[in-house]
Amino acid sequence: MSESLLQRRARLLGPNMPTFYADPVHIVRGQGVWLWDAEGRKYLDCYNNVPHVGHCHPKVVEAICAQAGVLNTHTRYLHEGIVDYADRLVGKFSGELETVIMVCTGSEANDIALRMGQAVTGKTGVIATDNTYHGNTTAVSQLSSKKPPIGGYAPNVRRVPSPDSVRPLGGSMEGQAEVFAGHVARAIDELEEAGIGFASLILCPFFANEGFPDLPHGFLDPTVEVVRRAGGVIIADEVQPGFGRTGSHWWGHERIGLAPDVVTLGKPMGNGHPVAAVVAKPEVTAAFREAFGYFNTFGGNPVSCAAAMAVLDVLEEEELVANAEEVGAYALGRMREIHHPMIADVRGAGLFLGMEFAGEGLEPAPEFTAQVVEAMKARGILLNRLGRHYNCLKIRPPMPFSRENADQMADTLAEVLDGMPA
Amino acid sequence: MSESLLQRRARLLGPNMPTFYADPVHIVRGQGVWLWDAEGRKYLDCYNNVPHVGHCHPKVVEAICAQAGVLNTHTRYLHEGIVDYADRLVGKFSGELETVIMVCTGSEANDIALRMGQAVTGKTGVIATDNTYHGNTTAVSQLSSKKPPIGGYAPNVRRVPSPDSVRPLGGSMEGQAEVFAGHVARAIDELEEAGIGFASLILCPFFANEGFPDLPHGFLDPTVEVVRRAGGVIIADEVQPGFGRTGSHWWGHERIGLAPDVVTLGKPMGNGHPVAAVVAKPEVTAAFREAFGYFNTFGGNPVSCAAAMAVLDVLEEEELVANAEEVGAYALGRMREIHHPMIADVRGAGLFLGMEFAGEGLEPAPEFTAQVVEAMKARGILLNRLGRHYNCLKIRPPMPFSRENADQMADTLAEVLDGMPA
User: CA-CA distance, A89 to A100, in Å (whole number)?
Assistant: First the structure.
């Protein structure tokens, strides 16, 4: 059954369509933190951040159904849905992040954010970190260094080395903030010297894809100073750390102490419904709309807004941000009790946790990490790996993850590592 | 109430957020071809193609609710939903259009299509028509000539004049196909001479935004010959004419007799649920996936596929494509019975109809057209205008539009025009 499904999938969706795991799972049902495959096997979901408040949360499903049966049009007609949601959303931000553009995907949000930088500065240069991913549009995918695009890398993109917990920039954790700011300053100079000019710095304030290094509050202060001096726009991509994922704060930029001009939101926003947004300072939104005009047919439709609103309701009613902090700290503690010579680091915040594996001389161990991922799956735990070297476990479950779930994950991880040679 | 909503909207969503009509309507409910505003006023929807099978069609709502309650994940796990839908969808195409990439918006689909052209040819030059709109990403919005982007127009985009019913290219309807092909040939030469090289031609095969000129089957044959000779990829943007809109055919490219390499789908696909797709020849999809890699978090999720599948079900069960042909022809006949000195042309296909207004010497009459749009709205009929000069009514209702609906629209239009000076 699954084999034939794989074959049909390859025929109809084309080759190189990514799947997880050596033998991909065929998931048919989800509820809360649980997933079931076609054979009825139950998995603890320690990976998916899109079903933020839990797979198929009844309140979100109900909100989608109710609105889908009443009206689903676009924003060229007036509707309370988008205005009420925007009002509620900006209430979650401090600073002047007071306007919202609603779209369908985080990629669309980041595509807009880059143009906001252009509209404000009149320049096109972008600085991003060197192991990042901000989405899949033509413009946004050029921020990633993974594959050279046809026609070559865009001349307006400069990449800077991202900070690291295990191998800090400049060799010491203490000096890392200044070293990072120095890389940004040099990239700005290069863009200006090339006649392109510097428009914006875009980063995930949790540096999620880079392996979410442990960084102190204020880490980005020297970088902000450099960017402000150059008149650039700061874009915080909150697609991963946003909506309380890190437990201590609603947004990753608050956690690290960054005050961005633009924030982009995506994956968890509608619990799986395709909805995303750009939250920005009013003058930034105004500059963008003036310079580019913009209309998104599905963006901010009443159903998408109902789904997104229900997610905020559930986050508050079930106190899931506090849960992320409490259960995340508990899970981290449990993970730190595990001992294995290949463990180079255990870190994370809230319900975004990782365990980094390395051999002698801190040599990254991506193969070992892949084996752990497969062994966990074989024991009914879904997680994955990430980081510059793909040697860090990515543990990022739905937010209603409990202590009991954390115990199951940590116990299984201990068991798996116990059976693995150093 | 509505005034305060408008003010909140401007404050929260920013300035220049487009609305329809001098006094925007505040729509709160939809069913079939009907919309209701906050004061309980009922409107006949003659504009919206997104609610393709009718606003809030119960079968589509039911499909969304059912799947949203069971599972909504991504395509890195196996799921029948996307494979079954892709299978059903490619069955609607002839030629070798046998593979599908699912995304969330028509903009995302066109953004991929352009990169498919790059992947196949190794070049980046794109040719589009000069009054077109293919979406809102950075790359795709550069196809539009409406606003020069910051940093200037992209050097890899060339625009050719689009065909016209009232003011044909080259002065005669007979020679228009060759003249259009000649423009394309010159644009190809320019791209090659500039060292950019020609990758793809993208067009709406119905030339919807250009005012959907009446063009004969085979109109694009000379253009296709030119593109094929240069080794280019042909992209048909079916976001507007697709899914049977034009009545006689499922796809606009079939109607005009074009065999594209890539087809993009959007707005009507999920009846308002954010789902879109690229359908392409297997070798084109393979080249794209090989050159760029691609993953779309929400694209092809089980709920989106359920919504899209239900749309196909309803189209077939209610024979809505045949309905579009029959009612569209009837409506066109009724519109042709209307006489007014400003009417320059009445045209369309299926349920995509227009009436073009011009003064002496075929001088386009955008203001007159705008007054007609407002007067129709005042009488409970929602439609709009389009075309190079915004002097053509855009009548594009949900597909269950009936003869009775057509009569109401045509009677009201006659009444409105009767009251307007020449």
Answer: 8
Interchain CB contact of B137 with A (< 8 Å): yes
Q: Are B182 and B325 in contact (CB under 8 A)?
A: no
On average, the pLDDT of chain B sits at 96
Burial class (CB in 10 A: 0-12, 13-18, 19+), B324: buried
Sheet holding A34-37, edge to edge: A27-31, A34-37, A42-45, A381-382
* Distance, CA of B366 to CA of B343 (rounded, Å): 12
Residue A119, chain B, CB below 8 Å: the answer is yes
- The whole-number pLDDT of residue B2 equals 57
**Which of helix, strand or coil describes residue B96?**
coil
Helix (H) or strand (E) holding A352: strand A352-357
Lowest-confidence segment of A1-15, B14-28, B404-418 by average pLDDT: A1-15
Q: Which residues 341-400 on chain A approach chain B with CB closer than 8 angstroms? A: none
Q: Name which of B18, B83, B123 is nearest A12 (Cβ-Cβ).
A: B83
pLDDT in tens, A251-303: 999 999 999 999 999 999 999 999 999 999 999 999 999 999 899 999 999 99
Between CA B190 and CA B247 the distance in angstroms is 38
Which alpha helices (DSSP H) does B125-200 contain, by range? 138-141, 176-193
The distance from CA B291 to its chain's CA centroid, rounded to whole angstroms, is 28
> Could you tell me the fold of the domain covering B2-53+320-418?
Aspartate Aminotransferase, domain 1 (3.90.1150)
pLDDT at A3: 63
Distance CA A421, CA A173 (A): 30
Q: What is the pLDDT of residues A339-381, one digit of tens each?
A: 999 999 999 999 999 999 999 999 999 999 999 999 999 999 9
Quote the CA–CA distance of A275 and A279 in Å, as a whole number.
Answer: 13
- One of 3.40.50.2300, 3.30.420.40, 3.30.43.10, 3.90.1150.10 is the CATH number of A2-53+319-418, namely 3.90.1150.10
Asked whether B69 and A56 are in contact (CB, 8 A), the reply is yes
Query: Of the candidates A287, A112, A122, A293, which has an alpha carbon nearest to the alpha carbon of residue B147?
Result: A293
Q: Structure pTM?
A: 0.97
Per-residue tokens: B138: 């950075």
Tokens matching residue A236: 């915080």
Which element (helix H / strand E) includes B347?
Answer: strand B343-349
- Give how far B184 is from chain A: nearest CA, Å: 22
Q: Is B195 on the interface with A (CB under 8 A)?
A: no
What ipTM was assigned to the predicted interfaces of this complex? 0.97
Instruction: Look up residue B358 and give its amino acid.
Output: A
Give every CB contact of residue B149 below 8 A, 6+ residues apart in sequence.
Answer: A118, A291, A292, B138, B141, B142
Percent of chain A past pLDDT 70, that is, above it, reads 99
C-alpha to C-alpha distance for B324 and B320, rounded to whole angstroms: 6
Of how many residues is chain A composed?
422
A74 touches chain B (CB under 8 A): yes
Q: Which fold has domain A58-317?
A: Aspartate Aminotransferase; domain 2 (3.40.640)
| Structure tokens belonging to residue A124 | 């096109």
